[in-house]
Amino acid sequence: MYKGSCLCGTVRYEIRGPIDRTSNCWCKMCQKQHGAASGPYANVASRDLHWVQGADAIARYASSPGVERCFCKICGSTLTWQSASHSERNAVTLGTFDTPYEGKVTHDLHRESKPGWLP
Question: Fewer CB within 10 Å, N or C, the chain?
């Protein structure tokens, strides 16, 4: 099981199942949402993601048709990304994990948007 939270600690979650894969998304939307070069995510079954505190502090934003991004209303921490066409899956931001993730990031998405200032 993995536990995680937002920056201010208002929202807390548990992942009670396996992480199927991990990825860095280099798309412009993830760059803007994270304020970083990429968005690192753990892909999990939606049924395994449980909001254990602060669910009422989660804001949802439809960043493009069929895509919903969740973040904390108080501190702004990016929490999840989900596609309506794959509602049985959730991408949880690795940076919000409180339980250390020891695996490797296995996929790079939208490499064409990777910033040129990175090595």
Answer: C
CATH architecture of 2-113: Beta Complex (2.170)
For residue 60, give Cα distances in angstroms to 15, 20, 43, 50, 82: 19, 24, 18, 16, 10
- Give the tens place of pLDDT for each residue, 2-43: 999 999 999 999 999 999 999 999 999 899 999 999 999 999
Question: Distance between alpha carbon 56 and the CA centroid of its chain, in Å?
Answer: 18
Q: Specify which residues 15 forms β-bridges with.
A: 2, 49
Q: What is each CA distance from 25 to 6, 34, 97, 103, in whole angstroms?
A: 20, 10, 17, 17
Residue range 60-76, pLDDT digits in tens:
999 889 999 999 999 99
CA dist., res. 40 & res. 94, Å (int): 6
Return the structure tokens found at 99: 């339980």
What sign has the CA pseudo-torsion 72, 90, 20, 104? negative
